Amino acid sequence: MAFLDVGLAFAMAYPRHIWWAVAFVIVGAIGLEWLQNLRPNRHGREADALVKIAGAVIGLGTGSLIAQIVGWRERTRLSAGL
How many folded domains does the chain comprise? Predict the structure, then answer.
């Protein structure tokens, strides 16, 4: 759930740089799972990283879609002179 929110926030904040946001959240998810291996009582798993990445990608996609809709509405409103 947290990575979905992070993906949504990044997509809304940086709609023109969506691929950088994708790279950032994927590296972040893999990095957090890797860092768990440094603790003896934690276990970083590939499946956990994939779930985090999936949530982030869903959030990025949703945020990108919302940003496009908002941008389209703004362009339409400006061209209509409102």
Answer: 1
CA dihedral 17, 21, 23, 26 (to 10 degrees): -160
pLDDT per position in the chain (82 positions), as tens?
A: 899 999 999 998 888 899 999 999 999 999 999 999 888 898 888 999 999 999 999 999 999 999 888 887 776 766 666 5
Nearest to 64 by CA among 5, 6, 4, 18: 18
Domain that residue 35 falls in = 2-80
Torsions phi, psi for 68 (to 5 deg) = -65, -40
